Amino acid sequence: MRGLLILLLISFSASSQALEDPLDVLSITAQLEPTYAAKMIKGKVVVSFEVTTPVDSVGLDAYNVLSLSSQTQGAQVKHQEGKVWLFGPFQPGTIYERGFTYSMAPKKAMYFDRGIIWTQGQGMESAHWLPSRNDTRDKIIFNLCVKGQTPLRVISNGVLEVTQGMGRQDSCFVMEHPMSSYLLALVIGPFERQTQTTTSGVVIENYHRPQDSLYAAVTYRYSSEILGFLEKEIGYGYPWSNYKQVPIVDFLYAGMENTACTLFDQHFMRAAYYEDALGYFEINAHEMAHQWFGNLVTKAHDQDQWLHEGFATFYSWQAIRHILGPEQYQKELYTAAQELISGQSRQALQPLISDQGTSLDYYTKGAWALVQLQQLIGVEAFVESIKSFVHQYAYGSVTTSDFINVVARQSPVDLSAWENDWLRSSALPVDQIQRTLGGFPILAEYMALQEQRGLPLAQKAARFNERYNEGVVLWQEEIVYQWTQAIEGIDQKRLSALLASEDHRLLIVLLNHYDQWGPQDLDGLVRQTQSSNMIVAMWAMWRLCNHFSQDKAIWLRQTDRQTRVQQQPEFRLLWLYLSANGQQPEEVHKTIEVALHGFMAPEYGYRIRSEAFSYFDLIGFKKSSATLAYLLDGSTHHYWRFREQCRANLVRWASQEDLTDLFRQHEGRWPQAVMDFVNRTYPDWIKTP
Ligand SMILES: [Zn+2]
User: Fold this and answer.
1) Among 106, 282, 312, 359, which is 20 to 30 Å from 257 by CA?
2) Are residues 106 and 26 part of one domain?
3) CATH number of the domain within which 85 lies
4) Based on the domain organization, do 161 and 272 belong to the same domain?
């Protein structure tokens, strides 16, 4: 009841773009029973709604419905053309409530993988597991209850209230404010939790797999600081009751900003541990910024996508500036500008107001458009505009014109040139970008250093010494690069100092570009393999084995027993690849083959499996029945890039004559989806069994 009262206040107070059809859903309350083994979900739903014009029926979006029956006496329901139809007649001015039970077999949006159930609703996919609405403008309060599941943890958008009874424990999530249905999230799995509370009192729940407790603290360490910063910078307190972050192995994207419940790829939890803090920082800040831009204030149409992605990217850069400092922020702007400029030479960029854009348009150009707007109207007017925009459209939906109108009220500056250059034109305003970059002191000197690339070392030595000692890593990286390229060769003392520095950013530049290595130089790095940055250690091992192949066996023996090489799959894979050669005794070669096969198994994430397939191919191992079985399994994986890669391998291998018999043996055992794919792309080779 409390939820409904709040909802009514909101639906009259929030500014919003009008809905396309007469249905306005107010709340969906559902009791859900997902079944992992059957990959199915059934539920009991109560939907509360209004209509804007008199109608006989209204439809909720719902796909692959297996069964449906009404729970409201005398009211009919029917599933037809991707909708659950509720029959009236219905009149404006009345709040209706209808109940029904349903079961569904989700083809997408709800995934059953590695003992975990998880969802991904964008874009507009939640109707694959819960009858809901494919219209971002219809803001709904969702209250989900999930039956049973103990001892697994159930995680969703709202505030958890556990109910006990009849020997069962149900997890019910209550939402205070409405949201678009693509932001629904549900995760069920064996997760552990660490909790933080921000200075403003927001509770952040950080989840991790039981085996990752070491990584969790490092991965999440900036969460509370970022949230506090965003609240101040946007001028609107965190809009939801709490915030949760859950890592998912082989997630479909880097991260997804479901309301108060971000899911992100497990890879970034480990990346933060072995690369540096930045591994998850940007995703953390980006998804958190979406809690305002996207979740609180939502695009009315697809052509306004940049209001989500451009804003979230812009605010992740601001969090970087505030927390990691000006150098990291300026580097971010510079890298993004380079991506835009090179992107434009490869493909035509789209105007920002468009539903045809790519992530380069919506995220990168969108964020740069805001950098330029901030410059144009000044920081103060910009901050006031954002604050006013968010307050006016909180829990509602917006168009780009709504945003421009708010800015125009806060600033007397003429916006028409900015609007044309950044929002309505497909050409990239490169001159403006260059001028802005040149206005940042760190970038101005960085670009000046780059201009010296063609000069002999002697002519720039004094400037290099001075700049190098100032400690700006961006300058140091450029200077180290130019040292590696100098005809005179890098000064041995400098090289030793660099190698001893353990500064992974400089070491990576060195390992990438220097090719005059002496064995003792690299030996030191490999000895540090156990302690140094993982990327550096892997690069050093690679370089060493390639530069001094005559001693390769010695290097590999030295590193074989190191825990890291043993335990980190990426490292082990590289080690195996470097270890293999044609002259090995049969049993050694076989051991490597078996080990590589192990990494193709479904228990590993797709990144590892994909590398295992590539190394296997590069070494030239003969494909066996087991290899083919792993490849077939990968060919139906939920992550499309990996699936496509496996299918491409399948077609490529199928054309190798020595594999014909092997493929014939497997013919009847191919998954139907793979058969359909092969029949489409390779019709002459295989016959449908
Ligand atoms: Zn985003």
Assistant:
1) 106
2) yes
3) 2.60.40.1730
4) no
In this structure, the answer to whether residues 181 and 199 fall within a common structural domain is no
CATH code for position 312:
1.10.390.10
The SS3 call for residue 338 is helix
Minimum mean pLDDT among 219-228, 308-317, 648-657: which range?
Answer: 648-657
Q: Report the separation in Å between the CA atom of 92 and the middle of ligand 1, taken as the mean of its atom positions.
A: 36
Kindly report, residue by residue over 187-244, the tens digit of the pLDDT.
999 999 999 999 999 999 999 999 998 889 889 999 999 999 999 999 999 999 999 9
**Residues 129 and 232 occupy one common structural domain:** no
Which of these three, 152, 174, 189, is where a domain ends?
Answer: 189
Q: How many angstroms separate the alpha carbon of residue 390 from the centre of ligand 1? A: 17
Query: What residues sit around ligand 1, an ion, with C-beta below 5 angstroms?
Result: 309, 312
Closest alpha carbon to 269 in 202, 213, 345, 188: 213
Residue 669, classed as helix, strand or coil, is helix
Residue that is last in its domain, among 518, 548, 578: 548
pLDDT at 273: 56
Residue 137 lies in a domain: yes
Distance 311 CA to ligand 1 centre (A): 9
Residue 16: which region, alpha, beta or left (left: phi > 0; alpha: psi -120 to 50)? beta
Residue 288 C-alpha to ligand 1 middle, in angstroms? 9
Burial (CB count within 10 angstroms: exposed 0-12, middle 13-18, buried 19+), residue 205: buried
- Residue 296 Cα to ligand 1 midpoint, Å, equals 14
Q: What is the pLDDT of residue 33?
A: 96
Residue 434, domain member (yes or no): yes
CA–CA separation, 624 vs 613, rounded Å?
12
Confidence of residue 321 (pLDDT cuts 50, 70, 90): very high
Is there a cis peptide before residue 151, judged by omega within 30 degrees of 0?
yes
Q: Look up residue 560 and give its two tokens.
A: 């074989």
Tell me how many domains the chain contains. 3
- Residue 687 in any domain: the answer is no
Residue 641: helix, strand or coil by DSSP? helix
Decide if pLDDT at 675 tops 80.
no
For residue 90, the cross-strand partners are 55
Q: Round the average pLDDT of the chain to a whole number and report it.
A: 89
Residues 407 and 283 in one domain: yes
pLDDT at 3: 35
Q: Kindly tell me if the per-residue pLDDT of 12 is higher than 60.
A: no
Give pTM, 2 decimals. Answer: 0.92
Q: Is 207 helix (H, G, I), strand (E, B) or coil?
A: strand
C-alpha of residue 495 to centroid of ligand 1, in Å: 41
The verdict on 170 and 213 lying in the same domain is: no
Q: Tell me, what's the pLDDT at 687? A: 47
Query: For residue 409, what are the domain limits?
Result: 192-441
| pLDDT score recorded for residue 272 | 57
Peptide bond into 93 cis (omega under 30): no
Check whether residue 219 and residue 148 sit in a common domain.
no
SS3 letters for 341-405? HHHHHHCCCCCCCCCCCCHHHHHHHHHHHHHHHHHHHCHHHHHHHHHHHHHHHCCEEECHHHHHH
The continuous run of DSSP H or E covering 265 comes out as: strand 261-265
Q: Quick one: 174 and 207 in the same domain? A: no
The span from the CA of 636 to the CA of 657, in Å, is 25
| 124 and 302 Cβ atoms separated by less than 8 Å | no
State the distance from the centre of ligand 1 to the C-alpha of 258, rounded, in angstroms.
10
Residue 247, preceding peptide bond in cis (omega within 30° of 0): no
Give a yes or no: residue 34 inside a domain. Answer: yes
